[in-house]
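User: For a benchmark we're assembling, each entry needs the component sequences followed by a predicted structure for the full assembly. Here are entry 17's components. Please fill in the structure.
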Amino acid sequence: MKFVCVLCDTPMKLEETVGPVEGSLTVTFACPSCAHRIALLTNPWETQLVRALDVKIGGRNTPPESWEFVKAMLAARREGALEGAGDVAAPEEGSAASTEPSSRDFGETSASSVEPLSRDAQAEGLGAGPRCPFSAVANRAAEAASLTWDPAAEQRLERVPDFIRPMARQGIERFAAERGFTRITEEVIDEVRGTLGF
Amino acid sequence: MKTYWDIAGDGGSNVAAQVEAQTARLRGRMAHVRRKVAVVSGKGGVGKSTVTANLAVALAMQGLRIGVLDADVNGPSMAKLLGVRGRSLHMGPNGILPPEGPMGIKVVSMDLLLPSDETPVAWHGPAQQESFIWRGMMEVNTLREFLADTAWGELDLLLADLPPGTDRISHLTGLLPDLTGCLVVTVPSEVSHLIVKKAVSAVRDARWAPTLGLVENMGRFTCKHCGAPEAMFPGGDTRAMAAAMGLPFLGSIDFDPRLAAASDRGVPFLLSHPDTPAGEALTRIARTIQAWMEAE
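Assistant: Structure for entry 17:
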């Protein structure tokens, strides 16, 4: 996604990033010629679309693990389905191995390095490295994706009315992530219950 | 005014480079698979997965190294059909080690990951109600990882069992641009033919890979009282349809209740009943495919 100032026909530059707040990020861009400013507001669904592409916005600094995407995004997984330590996906030995580029070949950087943006960094412009304004939201979504929901906890969530269920889910996942939980159980829901009122 | 393409760079997102890396990883893995064949039907319930499983066994019995990708992410059945359901996947230094079914057939299926019979495939997301918007991308990336991150080893043939529906064909076209061919399965009913024709056209229009031919499943059954063969479905002439579409007719597989029973037990029918009409038909079709592979 890129922005151009209609008045000046100049690529706009990132000025400020605020958030995420409730899964939304406010990103302000400014035209370097006329100082015209705009703000882009993201929603969690836009973030999800980025996640569905299986890319880490801003780049990655470690090679991908095998089935990393499936492991992170599948909502329920059989216990013991995957055994063994984390590993690095690589093609089998052979002639084709040399054709596979290393992640380093793409100049990837740590996702954590993409936020927050300094004024100096903003001044470098949109194409000046992996400083994408959407990183924060996307990476928060990735953190949430690493949480596993117990079936019983999922059932509890199902009792929440449809129209507020997404908000409840977000609240519970945020609560769990802040406390370093990797699994959402009924006990976690009990803890958060008072706060969300269900 | 400047367009998107007039402005250099990707805004720092690094998305294009990551997608390129994913593609290269997949290409590297698939370079060790000599042939890739997709099994499609368009119509559900024609026995496509059962045919896939038994053809895999028939080809493995000919000495080929076979892998099976269950590309039906939401309705996976290959793990059950090939007797590996409930087995664990092991993470090796070179990727996920897939379980091996009969004759050393390597199987990857979403079913291996699901916690129970009742659990549907669901993805983390802001709301399941809107999941139709991004679900397709989730499925494509799942298949990409299944293909690229599995330690398939050296294979002579990878069979990809696609879900019903012509729309899902496009899920694999981008992942396997060098697909060797498509096998189309139908039952001899006019309703099935109506849908299957669309699947053939979709494959053709996508210019993805040649259609190797049509396989007719449940063509006839044998009367248990008099032993006479009878048509399962009235009206549909699969051989004529194949001729009309300019496709090879690869053979007809008789309906046999023992085939369904074997599938339920996770034991490929061909192993226990190779000398039945259905078993012989499957073996003949497999030999045709093998001959075509050798001629390629």
